[in-house]
Amino acid sequence: MTVARDYQVELIRDALSAITMSSPGERLAISLATGGGKTRVLIDLIFQYAILMGARVLWLAPGWELIAQAIDDACARYRQARSMTTYIGPASADLVLFGAPRAHDATLTFSTLQSFAARRHSDFANQRFDLVVFDEVHYGEHGTLQKHVYEKYKNSAAFFGVTATRRADSGYRLVGNYYDLQALVERGILARPQLVSVDTNIDWSPGLDNNNNNGGGDFTAHSLDELARNQARNDLIVDTYLRQAVCLGPTMLFALNIAHADGLTGDLRSNGVRVGAAHHKMPKEAANKAISEFRNGEIDVIVNVRSLTMGVDIPHTKSILLTRPTTSDILLTQMIGRGSRKTPTKDSFFVFDFVDNVSGPNGVYIKRPDGFWGAPPRATSCRRPLHDYRLANLEPIRTGEVAIDGLGIQPEQTFAVEFEIGPSTPSSTLSSQVVTELTAVFPKAPTLDDTMSWRAEVKGNAVLVSSPIYSGVAGLSELVRGVDAVAEVMALYKYALLLGESIHVPFGWCPEWSSLKEAVRYFAFFEPALASLGPPPTPTRQRLAARKAFGDVLGLDTIESWFGYLDDRGGSYHSFDLRPLFTEASVVDIPLHVEALSGALVAAWVSLGMHVLHAA
């Protein structure tokens, strides 16, 4: 049996005290983020209250799946739970509840709001209850069903709600502290969301329904359907997934409506993606089958509208694709919360937010994940779009391969280079022949993508040189050949590497926020003034200390090889910086600022970079 966490014990204590001192008709609630153990807290609270006070409790939830989870949790931790529980509902509920008993004198009675409302005048419903519990109390708090329940028991029972997404206009008094997603991430309980904003460049003028408030209304069905039928936007959604698929892992996609969900499912499937859909217009068996397949890793993507916002816990979900804009804090929190559960191999998850150009009546305000959590990581300077990078899945690789002159390399890591060259004196003009010369000397060996090759593009009075994406020992050798070939052409035309851009070395990487911070910490052994453009301090004692500290992580022999390359060239590198380029692809760019182009120096830098990322 797992031990309750400190914040759970605190919430149980505060809630139990408030309930025992409450009056009939009083409404109390706790709020705890998805993944924080709401069911655990509520079960412990109810059983302690029932045993302490000899009380009878009515537990109402939006669906039977939530009730099944609660009964399973109770039976796993309280041996007497099965004999203490019953339910009010159709016989078909037995299929979900596995034959729960139906004794009239049960301590704890479960039902869904809908089932109870249809049977609220039955013998079961006419029993005395001391406490009425609403699981996911935000669901229909101001609706007719909850009002019926309140009117029936307000003179004899207190009311207690639990939710991850409390309405701003809630009539329930909050008990104890509110532990939201950010609070539980900082405590190490939940996974940290990594926010990625995808601009659609789609103009959209939505309308609002007549119930628009902080907990209720949203965009009209007509407006959502208009956005759902925009093929350019749908193509972008599919293309975004295909480009990032290796990094995204098990992905949950929230669509705009049923037609949108079915359309995206078909588009992804036609591109070879293992995908399924789950929504209320499907046969229940088909939807459950898709959820089961996603849970078991048989499909990589599950598409839904709102079916998975409550009562479905799939901890290994690694990415959330938000294709549905919303004005609701509740809906946004529910969608993001599907990825927040932590596992031994997951301490963060991606949230891709598809952002449209919205215009419309006053009061239209779309809830964004960046407002929900904080601004996503951004590049620290303006950059041109990079190539269409294919990403490597960098699960821990325990062994490396030996490449050029003993330099280590991680065989599955992808890498490339990009830099600008031009006349060494500003007054000189660019030769029209230089691009022809470069094209003639570029390596022609196959790369990770046969459609890609070395490129040289004129940019004003400079030439932008871009390599293909490489990997492995053979790829590093080809990269060195290409860089040295460009250096020969530069010598012929007396061109220089433009220090304003220097050599950008992008690596395909799926960055966890904690890993990114660890990589920066490792790099600090080399350059205490990260992201500066001035020469780093290079006292011998400091350099030796850096070698020792980093050598403890990766091995001193490899470190000596890297420093040998850097030192042999007179300390010609100036500095480097590290930044995730979320707006273009999951790429870490580690620029190398040097005075002269050298294939061997670039090889050393690539080797250093990939080992730092691997160690992080």
Entry summary:
With 616 residues, the protein is α/β, with parallel strands linked by helices.
Low-confidence stretches: 371-405, 527-563, 565-577, 579-585
Largest sheet strand order: 3-4-2-5-6-1-7
**Estimated helix fraction:** 25-40%
How many E-type strands?
25
Quick one: overall form?
A: elongated
Identify the quaternary structure here. single chain
* Rg computed from alpha carbons, rounded to a whole number of angstroms: 30 Å
Question: Can you count the helices?
Answer: 20
Would you tell me the structural class of the helices and strands? alpha/beta
User: Sheet bearing the most strands, described?
Assistant: 7 strands, parallel
Report the portion of residues in β strands. 15-25%
Give the mean pLDDT.
75
- End-to-end separation in angstroms reads 34 Å
Provide the descriptors you would attach to this structure in a database record.
37% helix; elongated; 7-stranded parallel β-sheet; 25 strands; 616 residues; alpha/beta; single chain; 20 helices
Describe the structure.
- With 616 residues, the protein is of the alpha/beta class.
- It is 37% helix and 18% strand.
- The strands form six sheets. Strands 3-4-2-5-6-1-7 form a seven-stranded parallel sheet. A six-stranded parallel sheet has the order 8-13-12-9-11-10, sandwiched between helices. Strands 17, 18, 19, 21 and 22 form a five-stranded antiparallel sheet that branches.
- A hairpin with a 6-residue loop joins strand 24 and strand 25 (587-589).
- The longest helix has 22 residues, at 472-493.
- The chain is elongated.
- The two termini are 34 Å apart.
- Residues 371-405, 527-563, 565-577 and 579-585 have low confidence and may be disordered.
